[in-house]
Amino acid sequence: MSTPVKVDVAQLRQQVGAGLGPRLIDVRTPGEFETAHIPGSYNVPLDLLREHREELRRHLDEQVVLICRSGRRAVEAEQALAAAGLPNLRLLDGGIVAWQAGGGEVRHGAPRWDLERQVRLVAGTIVFTAVVVGLLVPPVTWLAGLVGAGLVVASLTNTCVMGMLLAKLPYNRGPRTTFAAVVAALSDRSG
User: Fold this and answer.
1) pLDDT digit string (tens) for 22-65?
2) Which residues contact 43 (CB under 8 A, 6 or more apart)?
3) Which residues face 26 on adjacent strands?
4) CB 120 within 8 Å of CB 30
5) pLDDT tens digits for 79-117?
6) What is the pLDDT of residue 165?
C-alpha cells in the first residue's frame, strides 16, 4: 500500500484561486458537509463512495482531491478509489480543519457538532454514568471498562464504531445524498 499524495492548503488555495482547481470530493457525512464545506466541492459520503467506487471511477477522470474533517476518512476514500483503479488522487493535508485554519473560503450552513466531539460526549457520558451508577450497582462499572476498551480498539484500528453509528443519526445525516444525485452533480460540471 503506497502513501497517499497530499496537497497542502496553500497549494490548493492557489489552484482553486487560479481556476485550475482539481475536483474536490468531500467524504464527510451530509450533515458535516452542510455545516461547512469548500465552495465547489462535492459531497460523496465515505459509505456511498465505498459502495459505488467502481461507478465513481467513470466520473472522476481528472485530478481529484479528497477532503474530510482531518484526514482519516480521506485516506480510507483514497484506498477505496485507488483499488478501483482511479489515478491522480490526492488528499487535503489536515482536511477541512486545516483549510479553515489556513484562511480558505468556506460555505456555512446549519451548525452541528463534529463527529469526533459527539464521540467524546457519548463515551464520556457513558463512562461517567457507569461509574456513578456503579457505586450503587458495582457490576455496572464494567460498562465503563467496555467503553474504554472500545476506544483503545478504535485507536489501534483507526476506526470508530461509535462514530459510524452516530453518523447514521438523523442529526448527522443532513440532506439526503444519493448516488444518482452525486453522479448528476459530477456530470453537471463536466458537461
Assistant:
1) 899 999 988 889 999 999 999 999 988 988 888 888 777 678 99
2) 26, 28, 30, 33, 37, 177, 182
3) 43, 67
4) no
5) 999 998 888 899 999 999 999 999 999 999 888 888 888
6) 87
